[in-house]
Amino acid sequence: MREWWSKIRQALHLRRGLDGDLSDEMQAHLDLMTAENIERGMAADVARAAARRAFGNLTRTQENAREAWQFPRLETILQDIRYGLRGIRRSPSFSAVVILTLALGIGANTAIFSVVYSVLLRPLPYPHGERLVWLGESTAKASGISITWINFEYWRHDNDSFENMAAFAAEDLTLTGRGDAVLTREWLVTSSFFQLTGARPALGRLFTDHDDTPGAAPTVVATADCWQRKLGGDPNVVGESVVLDGTSYQIIGILNPRFQFLTRPVDFFLPLGRTAGGSHKRSDHENIRAVGLLKPGVTLTQAQTNLDAIMQRLTLSDPGPEDDHRAFAIYFTEVMAGDVRTTLLVLMGAVGLVLIIACANVASLLLVRSTGRAREIAIRVAIGAGRARLARQLLTENIVIAAIGGMLGLLLAAWCLRALILIGPRDIPRLTEATLDVPVLLFAAVISVAVGLLAGLAPVLNAGRVDLTAALKEGSPTAGTGWRGQAFRSALVIAEIAITLMLAFASGLLVRSLIAAQHADTGFDPQNLLAIELQLPESRYRSDDSVREYYGQLSRNLRAEPGIQDVGLVNCPPGGGDCGDYWYSILEKPTPTRDDVPLSLFDTADASYFRAARMRLIAGRNFNESDRAGGSRVAVINERLARQEWSEPRLALGQHLKLGGPYMEGPALEIVGVVANVSQMGLDAEAMPTFYYAFSQRPSSAMVVTLRTNGDPAQWMNAARRQVSALDRNVPIQSLRTGEDWLGATLQRRRFATLLLGLFGGLAMLLAAVGIYGVLNYWVSARQREIAIRLAVGAQRSTILRWAGLHATRLAVLGIVLGAIGAWSAARWLESLVFGVTARNPLMMLLAGAAVIAIAALAASLPLWRATHTDAVRNLHEA
Amino acid sequence: MSTVDDPRKALEFLQGTLEVLILRSLQGTPNHAYGISQFLEQQSEYEFLVDNGSLYPALQRLLQRRWISSQWKKSPNGRRAKYYRLTPLGRTQLVAAKSKWMRFVEAMARVLAPQR
């Protein structure tokens, strides 16, 4: 330690001084010796010469002394690097294969890692993002449901786990008075929201507590994007007012352009407390969620216990129908990652396996080369190179190769990443922010070095065991082909086959799932269906009658269009996801306990929707004209809900659905019909229990108008736009898509994951094929002479084929058995990604096995052909 | 190669011995490199021949470990030379090394020439 410290100080300050000092010292030494010689009676020049002779080699001594102060490693490492580069130039095709293999492995891994880092690992763009917690309420059945305003107020004031807390709610409002009416997206937030998220104004100011109290003057903060696009980008707009759903709000500020909250695009922020602050019931849900900033050192569980205690206390001081509700808390980072986590981790695992195959290929290539270099290594050992020194040189060479591969891999990763972002689904949060930044570069560097070390280990270990006499004998064919190297290469091939089988199995499962999802029974006919998504501005359509009137007239006008067969209204079309769920119970059945009240999705449809969408009616009837507002309230349920409650769907007819369950207020609806399940949450999702309200009895201003057309629905898009605009130009069209688009969008993620995993599976197969080819080819080369002799003494070609084929088959069978075991045990990781088939699918295993065998056979065929076509005479003659 | 030792040839230093001997040579008074080599040769009755190619690196190593320190001084006959002296650390090292080597030598002697 002390020596090193001295050396470092020496390297920093004194290097030059030392040289002078040493030569001075030695000169003095010589002088002393010369003086003694003169005293003994020698002549001056003779005395000097004698002293020089006695001293020995002056320069050498000086060099030796100086070396004691140097870091020899650094300098020899540079030498090794130069040597490595020379080696690459000497065998360019070999190096190209190795470097390309590494670049593929490292590039793919780096690209996927940068996505994983951006989506799962990168700190949130908020101050102390790691302490931000998402808050909601939960019951025994549902967690993360909305908080009521009053509960939030109690939490905010009574907790001692959070530094700060903010509530927020989403809302869509219509902006009027600036050209055509446009639908805008809002976040209603408490004034603490901007402190928590670290948002800053680009212009003006943000909300104060004063803006956030009931009865305050209406104020609004616009996002930079909205300011540019919808407010003309004029700085003087601050202080002006905008009309949202008929209310005039004063613009007090423009937000910093970099600010983003969740993935939802947003135009305006409004103060939540101004409107929600009037609420006083603890069961008054308004779709509010909250974020909290944990105090440093407080755990999530502590915070949750703290909030639960508040909820428990409230059941005593302010009892109500929701006394069983508790707090729900989850780290914000987890919310952001959401359910992409599994997908990304599976992809990362798959691409990691590809890297292992690449690594195995490179290892076996390097091993082959190092046996080819056995003579060179033997010479080095013979002239005194130590084992450690040799190992260091070989490792440095490998790392140089890996570094070049890594750099090429980075280029590849940059290109792949752009493609990934382009094809990636929009709903993966922060995917578009993925870049090759410092952590990603670090990752690439680490795996490059690790791969260099790992792949280089085998030849290095081998180098120490070189049999000098054997290797030095000219042309000795056995040089370096010992059983050890052979066994190692065989092990690599087995591992490659096993891993390839696992990847083939996994990507096969995903492809099968995608096909299953694409052919899933949608429960309706998405072809020739056009969907117009509308949201009536509340200022103009305040009453239920006006909403009914508008949609009734629009339906009539559209029906009159030539080529439109039918028009139906639905609140949430198939593929439209979750438009809300609620507790229910069946009046005619035993009352469930408080914890067992079931949940069902709800939707709203008009009388012609089921017909227009061609949804199969299983029992009872559709809604019809007799289901009027004020009449007996009715509902249509889906098959899933019917089968959950009754053995036969038709038994549901005439029974009553009590909304809110037995413990909450709510109307009872008579079940008049049962319809087929539809792919509500997407093509690759299980059907959920759903009931439909009759539009006539519960109109909603947000409806999707579905048109059944005579042919390609895209042809009626203009007609649809014209009719909506003709009826009321202040009603904005939110979206205009075909039924297939609605459904297709739900498969974006699945397609993305399947494409990538398929790509990795293909890459694995390619690399494995190269690896198998290389190893078998080498195996044949090493036995060329043996084969020649066998042929010369009369062996049949078929015997040779059987012999070599047996070797190849043994490797393949072992690899496939190991791979099957691995795939079988890893299948549970895939369970959440698989649809329509079981993850442990024997058929898929057979198919994957067959594919791998085919690839292995293809890769083995060339070396086997070479083995059987050895020219015995020529081969023996040359040897 | 002859297996019988040639008494006319000087002894080679065993690994690590030269450094101990340098420390010992500095125990009494500071000395310069030439003086050290003279001292060792005379004390060993010319059994050891000190090669400057080994002596100088050994001195550098001892300097790095802070067992000795160096200083330019005038020699008694008026010549400038670099003098080495033991540091307190070097002194304790010498004591430890000396007892270790004595034990080693005695053990060697007991094994090689047992006294019956």
Features:
heterodimer, A: about 900 residues, alpha+beta, 5 domains, 6-stranded mixed barrel, 6-stranded mixed β-barrel, 27 helices, globular, B: about 120 residues, Arc Repressor Mutant, subunit A, 3-stranded antiparallel beta sheet
SSE arrangement:
The complex is a heterodimer of chains A (879) and B (116).
Chain A: H1 2-39, H2 44-55, H3 58-67, H4 72-90, H5 92-121, E1 132-138, E2 143-145, E3 147-148, H6 149-158, E4 162-176, E5 182-189, H7 192-197, E6 201-204, E7 219-222, H8 224-230, E8 241-244, E9 247-255, E10 268-271, H9 272-276, E11 285-294, H10 300-317, E12 326-331, H11 332-337, H12 340-372, H13 374-382, H14 387-423, H15 438-463, H16 468-472, H17 483-518, E13 529-535, H18 544-559, E14 564-570, E15 581-586, E16 599-605, H19 609-612, E17 617-620, E18 634-638, H20 639-645, E19 656-659, E20 668-675, E21 690-694, E22 702-709, H21 717-727, E23 733-738, H22 739-745, H23 748-782, H24 784-792, H25 797-830, H26 842-868, H27 872-878
Helix pairs in contact in A: 1-2, 1-3, 4-14, 5-12, 5-14, 5-15, 12-15, 12-17, 12-23, 14-15, 17-23, 17-25, 17-26, 18-21, 23-26, 24-27, 25-26
Chain B: H1 17-25, E1 31-32, H2 33-43, H3 52-64, E2 68-74, E3 80-86, H4 88-112
Antiparallel strand pairs in B: 1-3, 2-3
